[in-house]
Model the fold of this input.
Amino acid sequence: MENLFFYIAAMLAIVSASSVILQRKVMYSVLSLIVTLLSVAWMYAMLSAPFLAVVQVILYAGAIMVLFLFVVMMLKYEKTETFRFRPGLLWCLGLVAAIAFLIEIVLPLNMTESLAPAATALAPGFGSIKSLGSILYTQYLLPIELTGILLLVAVVGVALLSGVKKE
Amino acid sequence: MYLDIIITLIKIAIVFGFVLNVAAILSWAERKQSAVMQDRIGANRADVLGFRIFGLFHPIADTIKMLTKEDWVPPAGDAFVHTMAPFLALFTALVVFAVIPFGDTLHIAGRDIPLQIADLNVGILFIVAFGGLGFYSVVLAGWSSENKYSLLGSLRAAAQLISYELALGLSIVGIVMVYGSIELDDIARAQGQYILGFIPYWGIIAQPLGFLLFFTAAVAETKRVPFDLPESESEIIGYFTEYSGMKFGAFWMGEFIEVVAVAGVVTALYFGGWQIPFVNNQGIFFPGLFTIPLPHVLIVLLQVAAFGLKVLFFCWFMLLVRWTLPRFRYDQLMAFGWKFMVPLALLNILVTGLFMYVF
Amino acid sequence: MITANQYLMVGAILFAIGVLGFLTRRNIIVLLMCIELMINGAGLAFVSFCRQMGSLEGQVFVLFAMVIAAVEIAVGLSIILLVFRNRATLDADEMESLKW
Done:
């Protein structure tokens, strides 16, 4: 049962991720990316990280992809839809580089003996909101505050960049 | 193993049967409600063999009408996305019911059956996450119609949904702080306590401001009056202008299912879920005075019925709101969301925190 | 039996697809989406290691990565909008002058 769920989620993730880079219409790329993000959230849930899974749906599918959708709705640019890939040899080089990269990370994975899942017993409530919150607001208090400042800076920056100047 | 699956399927059947029927009847109830409030008679013309039963055949007649209408896709638009959008609207409205508890744990034949389809330990966040995905149906419907007015309508709707989702999420934080849990069945169970021994400790009593904020934001999320700028059928053109037949019907149905969903969430969070005041696991009781014991199954059935009645009450209340209030202007809508609701929700969190620190 | 290796493999493939798209596509919006793919591949690896070790640090990193991604996309997309307003192009190869 668990195997089946994992394979469905993995297939969905990989197929939709390939569809992100193969689709002609940018809107279809955005929709495929949403499917990828949702299936990654599914895998997070299977890896006993339920809170992360929900945050993935809220933040990625509910907020970040919304921005993409807005921009794709507003901009119409046909040229990159008829010519999807970079001109000349550039895309061949990109393909070679990506394949080399994949081999590079998959080879060591095959050489190590397979890691048993949960070699150490999980504490009850692992990955729940309570456990994650207590570690976030004690050990990682400073980074969290810094992320807050970063978000504020981003809001100011975006408002400055996209605001219409009054003459 | 197989028994568990069958029990889950039965629970799904019960919940969806209730939700879909109530949503269909709401379309009739809305007409009747408007007729009552405008001193008319309302829909009563559909008859089967001379029987009219207050126009209750109208939902069926509507469905037949929509199924037989022409299904038209704009030639310049995107057929795939155009078809997908209404189903997304239905899906995101329906999936919310998976985590709403509609009764206490039922002990029957040595089994414990929690009366909730999926007991997820992220509870409320699941509702926020998948309720938020309803956004996509709006935006994709507008985009795929290839119509300027639909696009503008969907942008209006998207801005409204995003703005009010913030206030919605922030107003839930108060409830989570008070009951110390994010799982809906824990929250419903915690609402069975009593303050001073006789006032039920429901969310509305613990979080009156939070309730008002949540309910307002939730009505805004359903895109109904006074927040119906996205569709505003009478004068402005909305995002589903280019829809016809059952696809339009799916948007319509989705709206009524959202009404039931909001009523269910409000009941579960703020109106005691399945709790009946002065009825606990043993039977009817009054603190310190007397107890009348009742059989367990009867109590659970009463609680499920109480939950259903509360949901129906809130559905009716939202119809009442729909036909009472005028519509916001767009700048008023945005100002209300960002300058009034969000600061008030933050204040609610602050005050709740202070109270919890003091007491 | 699903081991951590399978999850790591899926993460690696997602990352590689992201790299591939980033190196080959023209449209700059798609390039931003490929960055998201790479972040997700890395996040999957983080979470599966986290499950393996029984510690929560990895999940915290993924949480921070999501916030950073949100910031990056917000700023990146507004820059794209500005570029499109001034140059009327979304082709990354045509955005070659540093100052205009």
Q: What stands out?
A: The longest helix of chain C spans residues 57-87. Chain C has a mean pLDDT of 88. Chains C and B do not touch (no CB pair under 8 Å). Chain C has one domain: 4-94.
